[in-house]
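Subject: complex prediction, re-run

Hi both,

The earlier run crashed halfway through, so I resubmitted it with identical inputs.
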Amino acid sequence: MNEILSIEIDRDSCNGCGICVDICPLDCFRIDEDEKAFMKYDECWYCGSCTLECPENAMTLRLPYPIRS
Amino acid sequence: MPVTKPEIETIKTDILVIGGGSAGCLAAIAASDAAPDLDITILEKTNIRRSGTLATGMDALNVVAVPGISTPEEYVKGTDLDHLRGIIEEDLHYVLAEKSFAMLKKLERWGVEFEKDDTGQYVGIPTFYGPYPGNFTIPMAGLDLKLILSRQVARRRITVLNHTITTSLLSDHNSVYGACGFNIRNGKFIVCSAKAVIMAAGGCGRFGMPSSGYMYGTFDFPGNAGDGYSMAYRAGAQLRNFEYVQHFVEVKKLNVPLGKGYDSESETKMLNERGEEIEYRDGWDEDEVNLLLNGESVYERFSHLSEEEIKKIEEIWFNSERQHSIISFFRERKIDIRKDDIEYSFEDISLCSGHGSSGIKVDIETATSLKGLYAAGDVACVPVQYLSGAFVYGEIAGQSAVKYAENCDAREIDHESIQKQAEKIFDQLDRSDGIKPKDFELGLRNMITEYLAPPRNAEKLETALKWIKKFRNEDVENLKAEDLHELGKAVEARFILDCAEMTARSALKRKETRWGKSDFRSDFPERDDENWLKFVDLKMDQKTGEMTIFTSPIKRRKVKEQK
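This time it finished cleanly. Structure:
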């Protein structure tokens, strides 16, 4: 079962470069054992920085209503 | 004995800037331009490229006195009547407006485009809610603004320490000579001595809870937890206006600046909860306090507009600042303004002098009450200064710090006390049991919402103080962090707690209601100019460690007094 998070990361597209880990203004991301980015800290402000900076366009911002606001 | 013994690294710089956001970038750039040989260091909590309130940009400068459009005198008058209501040091606002046009020109040279009409003049739109002269808001294509600023920093001899959270200032005898903090990635504890320190750590975005119940769905940038207020307070600085909280009516659960009749040239309709058309004017006490006291929402209707008009509104909304939140919000909730009304309600309270009023007391040189400490941006008390204030005063802070640093010797660091401080922080990583920082913060912020958000009264504020005491004496000492990121949250929890006490005590002091939604007291619902035409200030009593609240006089412009 997956947790519902505000940033959806397409694992097939993610190249593990770590740019999102580096630039997220809330330090939300880390790289996992498979060298893919994942949202470790659910503390997103929906600023969109990661979606703009990701070179593979692997990040999508979601506000899944009404489960998440 | 701590298992995780922090490795301490000592560094030396001439000018230390805490926070690499809008004000911090301008401060470092100005310092470097004034004295290219000085060592300048920025401590940045995440990464300067996108950090701070400006992450993915803003779309206007709200305070620009463009020659031929408006004057600094008009700005001072408007901000006094509309925002500050007599609680003012006029010089601060005059200088902001006076230097704002040169700042716009500087940003233009850096590649920021501002909107102009066919004649080549800037397009100025109203900044004030009320009918006061002067169109001070100049729209800009500013979504890449933070990238532009961080590139300007990179071009200069400025050291940026990213992912480094500042935990305290180094200070003694009313002067500041550096700061310490730690790297949230490698755990290195940094001690940085400096000749002058510029505090630019932003406001307190994580204060009250937003209507969504999501801790990070705040109006203001939630990376800032009142760090600068708390650190300056603990070093002994004078702070001001903490009874004034930012408190806005926004799109319910979206909580970004949008709508309320502003974004449309067409006539939209405002409705109450019973579907009756009402006249609701954003920023007008009468209308807002009414909503606040009734705990109601207000709705905006667009369904009677033509497709062309609707498209125009959507075009504006989906290209505004915070556009990523906005686009996602409408898409995921399947809200279509062709048929759906937009619901607006009061959102979280926060502290910040960008749109609010609270901050470290500064003069027009950005000097605080402590020697060697300068402050600019949301952390400094230049009420309702917007982004323009962060830029103008950020630049001044850089120049002031250079002047101070050039006549100042480096100070000795007390390594023993720093070692203790570092160990106390890192002990939180080694506890077998304790309170999660997130749980603590949620409890604290729910309390803040319940007892510190207007409408409030002496009873509620005393209750807040009772809980603050409990949070302080029992809970905050038992925080347990799982990793370095969480350790940062544990540090921030203390910042938020200090801010809560500042607001509770300041609000108790001001026995009147002056700013409606921002300070409404149900036990003193009227404005009282006879007794309260003065500032509520605070500082830490350095002997007892207690918070002292006192009042200070307002200051009109010297020029005016001579007339």
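Chain A has a mean pLDDT of 91.

- K.
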